[in-house]
Design brief:
The protein has 224 residues and is of the alpha+beta class. It contains 9 helices and 5 strands, in the order αααααααββαβαββ.
């Protein structure tokens, strides 16, 4: 049955407008984005099947264009729209960090890093450069690849910190494997970076590991 044949108070769009987006399921929210289904399936059915095929929202967002387009009812246009929505979410989170202290808004930092790194299929190492009030100056991807395979040069990070006139830095990288616990290489690198940045009076506030929905804080575990 098409959604237009449903009672108005059960349709996802009408429920969102009357009750708010938070009351809808993932499938219902995705159905509003998809707008239409395919023969024999409503938009909600298509959304539910897509979430099942990609193992949830994270899998849907990380799907390649070819994987996404292989699902009947999806395609290049919807892929482009979905990626645009995701990028807008990242930028909105970045704006929040520019307006408030990152140090006093740890959940905003987690949300931003989860959006920034949680969908990457390769390991990415980033730095958030902060001003004296711990507001975000900019975020930069510094290295790509596993820390065992990609050289992370403290000297280059020191140069970037000076170039941005940063007073503090938050480091973050992701573990595509899904394991949030830091490796010995992660801990050793963090110590090296902290020592190098101490020489120019730039504080390292934290180092986060993003592993799917989990965001691990070194500072919270006494590892900074």
């Amino acid at each position: 049955m098409a959604i237009t044949d449903w009672p108005k108070n059960e349709r996802p769009r009408e429920r969102l407008l009357s009750q708010g987006a938070q009351v809808l399921s993932d499938a219902e929210l995705l159905a509003i984005f998809l707008r239409t289904g395919v023969a024999g399936k409503s938009a909600v059915d298509l959304a539910r099947d897509s979430l099942h095929q990609f193992n949830g929202l994270r899998g849907l967002f990380t799907a390649s264009l070819s994987e996404f387009s292989a699902v009947k009812g999806l395609g290049k246009a919807k892929y482009a729209q979905l990626q645009a929505v995701f990028e807008l979410s990242r930028r909105a989170a970045s704006e929040q960090l520019r307006e408030t202290s990152a140090f006093t808004s740890p959940q905003r930092v987690r949300d931003y890093l989860s959006l920034m790194l949680g969908q990457s299929r390769v390991e990415v190492f980033v730095a958030l450069f902060l001003d004296a009030q711990n507001r975000l100056i900019c975020s930069e991807e510094l290295f790509r690849g596993t820390l065992m395979q990609t050289a992370v040069y403290p000297r280059e990070i020191v140069k970037q910190a000076l170039a941005h006139n940063a007073a503090a830095i938050i480091f973050a990288h992701n573990h595509p494997s899904g394991a949030a616990h830091p490796s010995e290489a992660d801990l050793s690198l963090t110590r090296q970076l902290k020592q190098a940045l101490n020489l120019i009076d730039v504080r390292v506030l934290d180092h986060f590991i993003v592993a799917g929905p989990v965001v691990y804080s070194f500072a919270e575990h006494g590892q900074i």
